[in-house]
């Protein structure tokens, strides 16, 4: 049985009389060559901000070393035939070696390559064995040389396995520098494109959007890129596509879209309120630190200079915090404009009731005054 609201949604046609489109987007996993993407963008007329971000060398290194990319190490297992044979005799079962990378704590440009050994015996039960020396090498991003250095742990120095490791990781690093993933396409769609088109996510579904009619032409340009360029470089059987259904105003559509706008605005305010709380908390902590520094007595000129630098750094931090709070007003204004635009489009009132406010203990001064102004404006333009 077709629900009544479905009758207000029509596929195809020229869209005359439509208030917008329900758009379904699927990227799947992609590996779009940077060159193909940038060439299309130069001809398309789409805003440069809509183009998925090209990975930086550091990001390419991190992707090459990530858990989701562990398959690149499968080739190493084939080079360990002698070791597998020894362990098979030792443990009396089928031995498999797998390799994983673990990020080094506090270092964005370093991972540890570790080998893990499993033995399958008896009725197929798999048991993990910890080798005496599980850590093989450090994988270190070398920005100046534009490569990945492989630094062996002492037990593996001179091991032929290291030559294979260096070849595998650097080949993958070079590959990751020149492709753009599906995740990067998804991010730019959600954070930039749909924001620019004043779209709203429907029913909390990240791939289903209502896009107002005045965004149709610009969205069509992205559709051409998605289907004619990106879809040629998908890595899975799942489709890379975008489907649009024209939407005509009726009571069900009016209610559904208005509800999704309300939910979006409430979620955005909650996040903004959390950001304000963290910024004010930072300001409170800095003021406590300032009081501690003021209580210090300089022993000599060098000590006085060190204390002066502390005050300068606190002043810079305070300026940054206050500037970030002030920018939150722009976000509130964008939320207010979105409510106003959708009230006109849907010919109905959108009532946002939840505008909570949390203030850390001890918040005071200009930072709190600016946060108060943001909250006051939110009350005026959102509720």
Q: Strand sequence of the main sheet, in spatial order?
A: 1-12-2-11-10
How many DSSP H or I helices?
10
Domains, number:
3
Largest sheet: 5 strands, antiparallel
Distance separating the two termini: 38 Å
According to DSSP, the number of beta strands is 12
Helices and strands, in order, run as EEEHHHHEEEEEHEHEEHEHHH
Gross morphology is globular
Mean pLDDT: 88
Could you estimate the helical fraction of the residues in percent? Answer: 40-55%
Q: What is the C-alpha radius of gyration, as a whole number of Å?
A: 28 Å
- Contiguous runs where pLDDT drops below 50 for at least 5 residues: 1-12
What does this protein look like?
- The protein is an alpha+beta fold.
- It has 3 domains: 119 residues, no CATH class; 122 residues, no CATH class; 129 residues.
- Helix content is 49%, strand content 19%.
- The strands form 3 sheets. Strands 1-12-2-11-10 form a 5-stranded antiparallel sheet, with helices on both faces.
- Helix 2 packs across helix 5.
- The longest helix is centred in the C-terminal third of the chain and has 46 residues.
- It is globular, with a radius of gyration of 28 Å.
- The two termini are 38 Å apart.
Provide a concise account of the structure shown.
With 383 residues, the protein is an alpha+beta fold.
Give short descriptive properties of this protein.
5-stranded antiparallel β-sheet, globular, 49% helix, alpha+beta, 19% strand, 383 residues, single chain
């Amino acid at each position: 049985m077709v629900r009544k609201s479905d009758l207000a949604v029509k596929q195809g046609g020229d869209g005359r009389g439509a208030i917008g489109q329900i758009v379904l987007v699927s990227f799947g996993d992609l590996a779009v060559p940077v060159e193909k993407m940038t060439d299309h963008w130069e001809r398309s007329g789409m805003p440069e901000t809509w183009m998925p971000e090209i990975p930086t060398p550091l990001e390419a290194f991190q992707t090459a070393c990530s858990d989701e990319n562990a398959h690149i190490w499968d080739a190493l297992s084939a080079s360990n035939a002698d070791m597998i044979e020894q362990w098979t005799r030792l443990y009396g079962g089928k031995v498999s070696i797998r390799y994983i990378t673990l990020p080094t704590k506090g270092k964005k440009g370093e991972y540890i390559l570790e080998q893990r050994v499993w033995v399958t015996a008896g009725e197929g039960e798999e048991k993990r064995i910890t080798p005496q020396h599980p850590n093989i090498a450090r994988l270190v991003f070398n920005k100046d040389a534009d490569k990945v250095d492989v630094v062996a742990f002492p037990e593996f120095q001179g091991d032929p396995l290291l030559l294979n490791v260096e070849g595998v990781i650097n080949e993958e690093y070079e590959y990751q520098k020149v492709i753009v993933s599906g995740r990067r396409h998804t991010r730019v769609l959600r954070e930039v494109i749909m924001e620019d088109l004043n779209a709203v996510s429907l029913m909390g579904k990240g791939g289903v959007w209502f896009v107002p009619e005045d965004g149709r032409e610009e969205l069509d340009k992205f559709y051409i890129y998605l289907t004619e360029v990106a879809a040629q470089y998908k890595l899975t059987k799942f489709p890379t596509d975008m489907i649009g259904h024209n939407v005509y105003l009726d009571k069900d559509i009016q209610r559904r879209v208005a509800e999704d706008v309300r939910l979006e605005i409430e979620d955005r305010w909650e996040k903004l309120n959390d950001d304000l709380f963290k910024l004010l908390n930072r300001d409170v902590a800095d003021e406590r630190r300032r009081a501690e520094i003021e209580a210090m007595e300089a022993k000599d000129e060098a000590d006085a200079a060190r204390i002066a630098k502390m005050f300068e750094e606190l002043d810079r931090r305070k300026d940054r915090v206050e500037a970030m709070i002030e920018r939150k007003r722009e976000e509130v204004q964008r939320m207010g404009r979105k409510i106003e635009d959708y009230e006109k489009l849907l010919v109905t009132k959108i009532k946002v009731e939840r505008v909570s406010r949390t203030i850390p203990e001890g918040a005071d001064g200009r930072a709190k005054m600016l946060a108060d102004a943001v909250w006051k404006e939110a009350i005026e333009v959102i509720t």
